[in-house]
Amino acid sequence: MIVKDFIRYDCPVARPQHTPAEALEMMCDYKISQIPYIDENESLALLDEITVGEMNPDEPLQKQVKNNYLNPYTTENQHIIEVLSLFGHNNIMLLPVVDADKNYVGALLAEDVATALGNLSAFQQEGAIIVLETPPYDYSLSHIAQIVESSDAKILQLFVNENNTGNLDIIIRVNQTMVHRMLQTFYRYNYMVKSVFASTENGDDLKDRYSLFMKFLNV
Known about the structure:
Layout: H1 20-30, E1 34-38, E2 44-48, H2 49-53, E3 74-75, H3 80-90, E4 94-98, E5 104-109, H4 110-118, H5 121-124, E6 127-134, H6 141-150, E7 155-162, E8 168-174, H7 180-188, E9 192-199, H8 203-216
Parallel strand pairs: 3-4
Antiparallel strand pairs: 1-2, 4-5, 6-8, 6-9, 7-8
Helix pairs in contact: 4-8
């Protein structure tokens, strides 16, 4: 599951000679809210529809695009999991992809990442999602695993993210739906349980949880 397996090579690209009106039309046709922009020096930026919509619609982008626009990107050989934070931290749904020489090759869409992760076996199994919060100095993966396993469960997935208070939010997918005893143990060890989601349905319900996860990353 590396990035190059999911690149959209046909994603439109805005060039200096294009007008904002043409860029917006390309975004509309491809159903995207951001578009890669490559200038005459092959420098890469990412333009969003709000910014483009505020420009003079008939003046070429070359005369209106500034040097301080967002320019996130990923490389072809990164793993999908590694790029999740780029979507979240930059609040984007499209991520430009470059090769080893930093040349633009295509785009990665958040919806494709959602589909790829939703098809993982861990998302297909019954289980629960537990979101914990703890100070960084109290975080211990081994301790969390011990609590989960003491309830005769196993960790299917675990993600850690620093929230706006400086604490860590920990998303855990476990292979059980009855997690009351596990939650009581987390409470006993002073973990804040922020939310719990349990599913006894098929994998479609668990795939829906990906949207929650992406919101958690601020996508």
